[in-house]
Amino acid sequence: MDKTIQVRDLIKKNLNNPKNRNIDKIMPNIFLLAASISVITTIGIVLTLIFDAFKFFKEVPLREVFSTHLAPLAVNPSFGILPLINGTIITSIIAMMVAIPIGLASAIYLSEFASDKTRKNLKPMMEVLAGIPTIVYGFFAYSFVTPLLMTIIPSLGAKNALSPGIVMGIMITPMVASLSEDAMNAVPNAMREGALALGATKLEVTLKVVVPAAISGIIASFVLGISRAIGETMIVVIGSGSSKNFSFDFTQSMQTMTAYIVEFTSGDAGSGTLGYYSLYAVGLILFVFTLLMNLFAQYISRKYREEY
Amino acid sequence: MTNPINANNDDKNIIFDVKDLNLWYGNDKALKGLDFQIKENDVTAIIGPSGCGKSTFIKTLNRMVELIPSVKITGEILYNGTNIFDKSLRVEELRSRVGMVFQKPNPFPKSIFENVVYGPKIHGIRDKRKLMEITETSLKRAALWDEVKDRLNDNAYGLSGGQQQRLCLARALAMEPEVLLMDEPTSALDPIATAKIEELIMELKKEYTIVIVTHSMQQAARISDKTAFFLMGELIEVDKTQKIFTTPRDKRTEDYVTGRFG
């Protein structure tokens, strides 16, 4: 009996200890602070972009911004952004034409057909591919893929959009594969069994049950891949060069938005000049691009979500 | 009679003839030398304590058990005279004739309509009118039509658990199978939904051969014609349900059905 009373007293004392109660109040605030850091940083970045981009848009008429003539260092500089947007979109499309089919096919293989042993060996290998620094991919594109492609397309320029596009696709493939595989793995086995018990083959189960059920995750992986391609810098700087011509010829050099920023932050534009502020304008447009991409992804994945 | 415990020798057609069936999971022997027959239009209940191999056995009948890696099987199961393990019989064909309803309702995350027509569709039926017809008859047979006929395009996950299970039944019936395997189909359902499924089974046995695994002896007694009692991977006894529950021949069966263990 005595013992019970003692334990109760101890618990009571502990419950009334102000130190313990304070910590319960303080800790959630610390967690909140940690969570706010990323939000605050995002707001900071957006504000910086908007303010400095505003200075640019004040000087340069919108009609000039959305023109195809880009010559920031000319005597009469012109800041048409369309060649950069064009370069970004074309390299990204090429990248996704590589990454989506290969990534999705690998995910299907890994999740539905590979034996446990194969999966255990293959997945880490793919993740190594994702860990290679992008600058390595850059000179892989420039010094290996471009010469290789020249044997097929003789007119290919030493700097071109095709080869960095393909290499970016290879870089993104593991990400698409890994995220899509996670989404497909999350589909309950009971669903596969349900379909198999109706006499479906493994391929039918995969294409008509598993992929549709995982589609929101799969699309999310595509969009993350596209965002990655749009934001990718080193590969296109090295592989695609800095031609500011507006053209759809992907066998020739093109400059992307990111490559433009690299070119101008490495010394060509003095602080406070119009060229300097143009960087922020390009940065802002880049940001809007990825933002729209993500909103689009959310819309698509909500629309096609299959609840289970 | 070669096997003394096999007493269901009436003159109905034999649908499944199980001959010396052994099954291992890795090194664990889960089914030990099973010999018995499942007859046409019978409801055969399989009872026994947890881990006795009753689920394993029913999943062997449509070869779903092979999804588990490391499974090894010896012996034969003749389905209408053809060994189901024979290479000449495609497993998809077997499963299209032997439907299955699982322990937990597992509809696809699609509309009610798409769920019912999934099987017919993958087996090549494309005609929209025909698919609609299949949906109506299957849902009617599963006693679900009146509840869902106005919302066939709604997601199946909006249905209650009991309705989902009847949808899974309708999905299996849409294939017009010969046999229905049911692996504890009511264990995740409330008593009212259970009663509905049981009523359905009584109705469906006119057209189908039904094998049902159940952990509820009352359920076996209520709905089955034959009952098989499994213990530790062995078939102890199979007979007319009434006989199993009143005058079983084996002491272990008696102990189990009277609730002395399990």
TrEMBL record, chain A:
<keyword id="KW-0813">Transport</keyword>
<feature type="transmembrane region" description="Helical">
    <location>
        <begin position="205"/>
        <end position="226"/>
    </location>
</feature>
<dbReference type="Pfam" id="PF00528">
    <property type="entry name" value="BPD_transp_1"/>
</dbReference>
<protein>
    <recommendedName>
        <fullName>Phosphate transport system permease protein</fullName>
    </recommendedName>
</protein>
<dbReference type="InterPro" id="IPR000515">
    <property type="entry name" value="MetI-like"/>
</dbReference>
<keyword id="KW-0472">Membrane</keyword>
<feature type="transmembrane region" description="Helical">
    <location>
        <begin position="30"/>
        <end position="51"/>
    </location>
</feature>
<keyword id="KW-1133">Transmembrane helix</keyword>
<feature type="transmembrane region" description="Helical">
    <location>
        <begin position="130"/>
        <end position="153"/>
    </location>
</feature>
<comment type="function">
    <text>Part of the binding-protein-dependent transport system for phosphate; probably responsible for the translocation of the substrate across the membrane.</text>
</comment>
<dbReference type="InterPro" id="IPR035906">
    <property type="entry name" value="MetI-like_sf"/>
</dbReference>
<feature type="domain" description="ABC transmembrane type-1">
    <location>
        <begin position="85"/>
        <end position="297"/>
    </location>
</feature>
<dbReference type="InterPro" id="IPR011864">
    <property type="entry name" value="Phosphate_PstC"/>
</dbReference>
<feature type="transmembrane region" description="Helical">
    <location>
        <begin position="165"/>
        <end position="184"/>
    </location>
</feature>
<keyword id="KW-1003">Cell membrane</keyword>
<feature type="transmembrane region" description="Helical">
    <location>
        <begin position="274"/>
        <end position="297"/>
    </location>
</feature>
<keyword id="KW-0592">Phosphate transport</keyword>
<comment type="similarity">
    <text>Belongs to the binding-protein-dependent transport system permease family. CysTW subfamily.</text>
</comment>
<keyword id="KW-0812">Transmembrane</keyword>
<feature type="transmembrane region" description="Helical">
    <location>
        <begin position="89"/>
        <end position="110"/>
    </location>
</feature>
From TrEMBL, chain B:
<dbReference type="InterPro" id="IPR027417">
    <property type="entry name" value="P-loop_NTPase"/>
</dbReference>
<feature type="domain" description="ABC transporter">
    <location>
        <begin position="16"/>
        <end position="257"/>
    </location>
</feature>
<dbReference type="InterPro" id="IPR003439">
    <property type="entry name" value="ABC_transporter-like_ATP-bd"/>
</dbReference>
<dbReference type="InterPro" id="IPR003593">
    <property type="entry name" value="AAA+_ATPase"/>
</dbReference>
<dbReference type="InterPro" id="IPR005670">
    <property type="entry name" value="PstB-like"/>
</dbReference>
<protein>
    <submittedName>
        <fullName>Phosphate transport system ATP-binding protein</fullName>
    </submittedName>
</protein>
<dbReference type="InterPro" id="IPR017871">
    <property type="entry name" value="ABC_transporter-like_CS"/>
</dbReference>
<keyword id="KW-0067">ATP-binding</keyword>
<dbReference type="GO" id="GO:0005524">
    <property type="term" value="F:ATP binding"/>
</dbReference>
<keyword id="KW-0547">Nucleotide-binding</keyword>
<dbReference type="Pfam" id="PF00005">
    <property type="entry name" value="ABC_tran"/>
</dbReference>
<keyword id="KW-0813">Transport</keyword>
